Amino acid sequence: MNIQTIALMASVLALAACGNGEKRKQEREEKNKKPAAEQTQTPNHTCRSVTDDEVAALFDRWNNALKTGKPANVVATYAKDSVLLPTLSDKVRYSPAEKEDYFVHFMEKSPVGEINERHIQIGCNTAFDAGVYTFTFGKTGEKATGRYSYTYKWDGKDWLITSHHSSLMPEAQAAKTAAAVAAAKAQAAAVPAAPASAPIAPVAHPATAAATPAQQQQAAAAMASAPIAPVAVPASAPAAH
C-alpha cells in the first residue's frame, strides 16, 4: 500500500467522523429548540407537560369548589381511587361518599383557604404541591393554619387529586394544650380549701366517767353478763259484745 492510498483512506475516515459529529450537533440543536410546553415521549407513554403556575392553579380550583358550598363539587376534584387524610377527622377517606361526608361537616362554617408557603415538584403525568395553608371560617371568623400536601395525576383528560393530607400545626397544638392545662391548674389553686374537721372527743358513760380503768372494765363485764329482764305483755281486754 503506497503513501497516496493511505492518505486517501485517512481523508475518507476524517470526513466520515466530521459528518457524524455534525449530525449529532444538529440533533442536539433540534432538541433544544423543542418548545417547553410540547409533550415529551417516553418508551411507554406520553408525558403531559405542566408548569408550576398550572399546578398552583389546581389548588385554586379546589378552593373555589369549597366556596360553592356544595361538597359534591369539591369531591369532583379528586380521582375516584384517591385518599384523603382530613384535618378535622381521624377517619381516612377513600371513597367519594366518604369524602363527601367529611366535606359536609367541614363546609358548615364556610371555610376559605389561602396558601402561606408551598413547594411544587413535577414528574411525568404527576405533580406534587406541599406547604402551609390557612383557612378562614366565614361564619365564625376563626382561623386555622395547617400543613398540606396534594399529589395530582393526569388521567388523559384532566389533572385530579390522587392524595391529600392536611393536619394542624403540631407545635401550635402542643402550646394550646399546655395553656389549657395551666389554666385548669390555676383555677383549681384559686378555690379555697375546706377547713379541716375537729376531732370528735369520746363521750364517757355517766356511770364510768369517774371510774378507774380497772373499774371501767369490771363495769363493762357486769353489763355484758347481766340477764335481760323479760318484757311483760299486758293482757288483752275482753272484747265487748
Automatic annotation (TrEMBL):
Q: Where is the composition biased (Polar residues)?
A: 38-49
Return the annotated region ranges for Disordered: 20-49
Where does the record place the Calcium/calmodulin-dependent protein kinase II association-domain domain?
A: 53-170
Give this protein's Gene Ontology molecular function annotations.
Answer: calcium/calmodulin-dependent protein kinase activity; calmodulin binding
Q: Which Pfam families match?
A: CaMKII_AD
User: Which InterPro entries does UniProt cross-reference here?
Assistant: Ca/CaM-dep_prot_kinase-assoc, NTF2-like_dom_sf
Q: Basic and acidic residues compositional bias: what residue ranges? A: 21-36
Highest taxon in the source lineage: Bacteria
* Protein name listed in UniProt: DUF4440 domain-containing protein
Source organism per entry reads Conchiformibius steedae
